Amino acid sequence: MHGSHSDEVRQIVVDDATVDDLDAVAEIYAHYVQHTVATFDYVVPTLEQWHAKHAAITAAGRPFVVARAFDESVTEQTVGYAYLGTFRGMPAYDRSTEDSIYVRPGFGGRGVGSALMAGMLDRANPENVRQIVAVIAATGGDGSIALHSRFGFTEAGRLRAIGHKAGQWIDCVYMQKDIWESRDR
């Protein structure tokens, strides 16, 4: 990881993710799988799985974005990603999505999550998205809950002891945003 530049971030730019970004996306997510309970995955997805996920999300007309940070020497580094994935697989849920936002370790608290959220929401198409659901591990999830609250998500409920990882039972907080209510239709 390139943590040496984290104190010198001068600019954050959010772009649509391309296949060239997926190595960095995979690296960022691998950290969360291996070292946190932020995701309930136990196995790090392969790069091929990331390619398939990116293709499916973009084919569905949903946003998949990356945040790039530039330091004072204009060196670029991918410092996070966000996308709107599938909430549930049944057809009645087609306009409901689940968001995922991950920030490279060492870059938390620098506005990366907010930039990603804003970029993702700006690209959400009300023609194919109405509801965005966030499923947040309550253990260590205070920052994510605060981020979602700042962007108009409200708590929809909590599932207690729903996941087991790292030797502990973890609650999930569900948050929800109706983008039809927050935009002029």
UniProtKB/TrEMBL annotation:
Alphabetically ordered keywords of this record: Acyltransferase, Transferase
SUPFAM superfamilies: Acyl-CoA N-acyltransferases (Nat) (SSF55729)
CDD domains: NAT_SF (cd04301)
Organism: Gordonia amicalis
UniProt keyword Ion transport, yes or no: no
Protein known as: N-acetyltransferase family protein
PANTHER family: N-ACETYLTRANSFERASE (PTHR43072), UPF0039 PROTEIN C11D3.02C (PTHR43072:SF23)
Domain of life: Bacteria
MF (Gene Ontology): acyltransferase activity, transferring groups other than amino-acyl groups
Listed InterPro entries: Acyl_CoA_acyltransferase (IPR016181), GNAT_dom (IPR000182)
One protein family per Pfam: Acetyltransf_4
PROSITE patterns: GNAT
Domain N-acetyltransferase intervals: 12-180
